[in-house]
Amino acid sequence: MDGEITQADSGLTDFDDDFDPLIEKLDPALPDDRYLDRELSWLAFNQRVLELAEDESLPVLERTNFLAIFASNLDEFFMVRVAGLKRRILTGLAVPTNVGRAAQDVLSDISAAAHALQNRHALAFQKLVRPALANAGVDVVAWNSLDDADRRSLRTYFSNQIFPVLMPLAVDPAHPFPYISGLSLNLAVRVRNSKTGKQEFARLKVPPMLPRFVRVDRTESVDCIRYIALEDLIANQLGDLFPGMEILEHHVFRVTRNEDVEIDEDETENLIKALEKELLRRRFGPPIRLEVTEDMDDVTLGLLVRELDVTEQEVYHLPAPLDLGGLFDLRIDRPDLHFVKHVPTTAAQLLPSEPNAEQDIFAAVANRDVLLHHPYESFATSVQAFLEQAAADPNVLAIKQTLYRTSGDSPIVEALIAAADSGKQVLALVEIKARFDEQANITWARKLEKAGVHVVYGLVGLKTHCKLALVVRYEKGVLRHYSHVGTGNYNPKTSRIYEDLGLLTADAQVGKDLTRLFNELSGYAIEKKFKRLLVAPLHLRKALLKHIAIETQNALDGKTSGIRIKVNSMVDEAIIDALYRASQAGVQVDVWVRGICSLRPGVAGMSENIRVRSILGRYLEHSRIFSFHSLGGTQVYIGSADMMHRNLDRRVEALVRLVDPEHLVEIDELFERAMDPRTSSWWLDETGQWTRHDVDEKGGHLSDMQNKLMRQISARKRPTGRR
């Protein structure tokens, strides 16, 4: 029947949905402590990022970048995850936890781990990266290390470029304690009135629009560069800001606020207006972290703690400089201090058969499915070119696309606008609830609407996270569907640093599936099942559980079996329990995870057949892959879904099944390489500890998977003929 999954279509066999007969053959009493805490697992992921910053074998400006990534990651963790836990505790809401402990205990553990990590992070900069930068001719210096000539030069720069935009705010009976914006860098200044002897307090915000690090030398040389932190420069010019006052103390501090967004969509008539109102409210969320320099005096600290209403647990005493996310601003033209530059290649199948011929995406995809692997293969000459060609092609009648996150100067959006301008039917499903991209997506939505694009915002109560594009083209008297299903966003900028997969296909069934799914997202159609897609929230978890159950049954029957999963996060309890039971039955389970993993591998009698690996490097591993042995007829899906409650229950996600034998081999080789003990990676043990394996028994470096893929994919040749 049309729309129903059959064994031939999906690889799923008839199997009792509740799996009771299977569970009875195994030990159903899995231990209560079978899950690792998701928040602590996330902090362990950020520790792996920090370990890259500490790695002396990496180029020093890349290590600096990893320090900044760590800081940015941790900011978001506090703004969303910690803030969410605290809000639920304060409001008496149930706190989801898969480790069976009280939420307050979880918060205490998070605080202890975060304090340790932030101190390690600060020391990594002070003791490891900063000296390595100096040795390479890039020195971050302090004011007290400068000579008189340097100070005169910087005072002139301060007077001309910084002083005019500073706004000191006094705190006294006539001036209440000012609002401190989230993630802003601030100076707490205590002064004494020389006439009255009275002490006063002032807050001075470090302007975020100015360079975070200021060049000390005004020459153009890049061989020896010195920088000073902006707040250090400002702190040593306070006499200009408080003339006639005695400067007693000055210290740097930074506040992190709750910036999560919650909207009751069922009670909202206009989603955009409600979201804009909520974004305004987010700026004034309660503080959940106070970072201060370790030399801050007790009087100043007491004032900040009292006025900001934070607990002792929420105060982080750190060596200066605070906010190492500012290291992103050290953009120096020193190729020798960065990774060797890699230019993505055009996917071999998308190259024209003759060297000087024009690229024809439709002809290439019509000939054969194309599996793309970014950033090794160019996004610009594949997905972007596909949509731009569709926009310009007079035979294209319609384009439908989801947009979750895109870049500020998005050629994808421009292609959709161009298509609408030329009279094509264009549908853009813009997810305006994409966290921290809400305002940008609202702007895109309005721009698209003005251009005549049909803009919709998905289903009430769900985020549309799937990465889908559908082009309908008139060819030889019939309509043909060209589809793209990806694991990453339609964002040309992140496509250069995020590892992702994407399928370009002219398969009619995928086209029909996407047509039905877009109808569901833009209208009121309800599709229960698809043929080559697995779609959340209705059926994705159930389908994956069924696949896992089939492998489990095969192992119990003495047949070959195997499960391989690559995700960003592995948290969902139902999926984890199914993998435990598969392991109990003898299925070899390989889990390749970038970030959070609540699954506990290697536990005797429960998960001894499960291996968990993590790979971090110059590119952010972002693709999601699900591979099931299926008695040798391997079933492989790629798509947007992680194994988390939000992905499986509160988002529209889509996985597409790969069918080209060469693509199945390519996926298999990816897993073989990732799980190979000769590949540099982190291994998770049953206690929740991640151990880096990056050197062999002789002390040599293990293989860098991303570097190998770069060389291998770059060497692919133009196809000699068409199928």
Overview of this protein structure:
With 723 residues, this protein is an alpha/beta fold. It has 3 domains: 17-30 and 534-714, 2-Layer Sandwich (Endonuclease, Chain A); 54-260 and 289-337, 2-Layer Sandwich (polyphosphate kinase like), CATH 3.30.1840.10; 348-527, 2-Layer Sandwich (Endonuclease, Chain A), CATH 3.30.870. It contains 20 helices and 27 strands. Strands 14, 18, 19, 20, 21, 23, 24, 25, 26 and 27 form a 10-stranded mixed sheet that branches. Strands 10, 11, 12, 13, 15, 16, 17 and 22 form an 8-stranded mixed sheet that branches. A 6-stranded mixed sheet has the order 2-4-3-7-8-9, sandwiched between helices. It is globular, with a radius of gyration of 28 Å.
SSE layout and pairings?
Elements: H1 7-10, H2 20-24, H3 38-53, H4 60-91, H5 103-135, E1 138-141, H6 148-162, E2 169-171, E3 185-193, E4 199-205, E5 213-215, E6 225-229, H7 230-235, H8 238-241, E7 245-257, H9 271-282, E8 287-293, H10 298-308, E9 315-318, H11 361-367, E10 370-374, H12 380-392, E11 396-403, H13 411-421, E12 425-430, H14 438-450, E13 454-456, E14 463-464, E15 467-475, E16 478-486, E17 498-505, H15 508-522, E18 533-536, H16 540-556, E19 563-567, H17 573-585, E20 589-593, E21 610-614, E22 620-621, E23 624-628, E24 635-639, H18 645-649, E25 651-658, H19 661-675, E26 681-684, E27 690-693, H20 705-714
Parallel strand pairs: 1-6, 8-9, 11-12, 12-13, 14-25, 17-22, 19-20, 20-21
Antiparallel strand pairs: 2-4, 3-4, 3-7, 5-6, 7-8, 10-17, 11-15, 15-16, 16-17, 18-25, 19-23, 21-26, 23-24, 24-25, 26-27
Helix pairs in contact: 3-4, 3-5, 4-5, 12-13, 16-17
EC number: 2.7.4.1
InterPro entries: PP_kinase, PP_kinase_C_1, PP_kinase_middle, PP_kinase_middle_dom_sf, PPK_C_dom2, PPK_N_dom, PPK_N_dom_sf
GO molecular function, one term: polyphosphate kinase activity
